UniProtKB/TrEMBL annotation:
It holds the Pfam family Polysacc_deac_1. PROSITE patterns: NODB (PS51677), PROKAR_LIPOPROTEIN (PS51257). InterPro entries: Glyco_hydro/deAcase_b/a-brl, NODB_dom, Polysacc_deacetylase_ArnD. Residues 1-21 form the signal peptide. This is Polysaccharide deacetylase. It comes from the Bacteria. Gene3D superfamilies: Glycoside hydrolase/deacetylase (3.20.20.370). PANTHER family: GLYCOSYL TRANSFERASE-RELATED (PTHR10587), SECRETED PROTEIN (PTHR10587:SF134). It comes from Sutcliffiella cohnii. SUPFAM superfamilies: Glycoside hydrolase/deacetylase (SSF88713). The keyword Lipid biosynthesis does not apply. One of its GO terms (biological process) is carbohydrate metabolic process. GO terms for molecular function: hydrolase activity, acting on carbon-nitrogen (but not peptide) bonds.
């Protein structure tokens, strides 16, 4: 118990440094509830988890990776479906962060909670810093699993590329830093080490996917583009979701509360449920 108290205090100090004018007691309560979500042994093991992450990082930095010209959303090694014929769908929600991407779609999240709908949330480090209280609440809710959406929301490549006008990482070291900065942050804050990674823009080269794999992460994109970066109309969001099939992975965004994403999801989900679909976490199935 003494060790757990020290660990909680350590986490509170980290949080206090990253967010100004935030109530420390609230942070402690949210962190504690997040810890209680899973096996308590996970949180006694945070130091050993961080030690493992450090070793994985060192190994990845010293390994040689071959460059290729392939740079897209669907390069070799990227997973886009659940490996099942069952009537299940995995909703994935991106929280991108940054100047224009740090909102919180409370309407969307409240709907999923009210309807008991599971979702996998890919969270960027910048979004965490801007929404610490909401992040810890999401991490403590068993309906949601928290996964890694990068540190600065960059496309992943070991040489210079662009996706949607956004500069990629440009070296092996930058790829590792983009992944591991947020991997360590999430582990420190929640005690959980993410299993899945999605880059900013969901673009990669093959080398960066291999690097992520060597860092014990599966790279996950999607088979259904649910809201096109929170730009679709309500009807287009709805129709996109209704194109889901057995094992679909859907991408949506929970960082644009003024978008039509929540409205479209609220119309599509009841229809999909009436068709016999169940909503699951990525971790409930193998991926392909």
């Amino acid at each position: 118990m003494k060790y757990l108290n020290v660990l909680l205090l350590f986490c509170i100090l980290i949080v206090g440094c990253s967010v100004n004018n935030f109530n420390v007691r609230n942070h402690a309560n949210h962190i504690k509830s997040s810890f209680e979500k899973s096996n308590p042994e996970d949180y006694y093991n945070v130091p050993s988890k961080l030690e493992l992450l450090s070793q994985l990082e060192k190994d990845a930095l010293h390994k040689q990776y071959n460059t290729t010209n392939n740079f897209s959303e669907n390069v070799l090694g990227v997973k886009t479906m659940l490996h099942t014929d069952e009537k299940v769908i995995a909703l994935t929600l991106d929280a991108c962060g940054g100047e224009y991407g740090s909102g919180y779609d409370e309407t969307l999240i409240d709907f999923l909670i009210a309807e008991n709908i599971k979702a996998t949330i890919f969270v960027n480090a910048r979004w965490i810093d801007a929404n610490m209280e909401e992040f810890l609440q999401l991490a403590s809710n068993p309906l949601f699993t928290i996964e890694n959406h990068g540190t600065e929301h960059k496309p992943l490549s070991i040489r210079s590329n662009y996706a949607w006008g956004i500069q990629s990482t440009t070296s092996q070291e930058e790829v590792v830093n983009e992944i591991m900065g947020n991997q360590v942050k999430i582990t420190k804050l929640t005690g959980y080490t993410p299993r899945y990674f999605r880059s900013g823009t969901a673009y990669y080269d093959e080398a960066s996917v291999k690097i992520a794999n060597d860092l014990n992460l599966e790279v996950v994109n999607f088979s259904i583009n649910g809201d096109a970066g929170a730009t679709f109309s309500r009807e287009r969001v709805k129709q996109s979701l209704l194109h889901s099939t057995n094992g679909s992975i859907v991408i949506l965004h929970m960082n644009q509360p003024s978008s039509n994403t929540a409205a479209g999801v609220k119309e599509a989900i009841p229809i999909l449920i009436s068709q016999g679909y169940e909503f699951v976490h990525l971790s409930d199935y193998e991926l392909k």
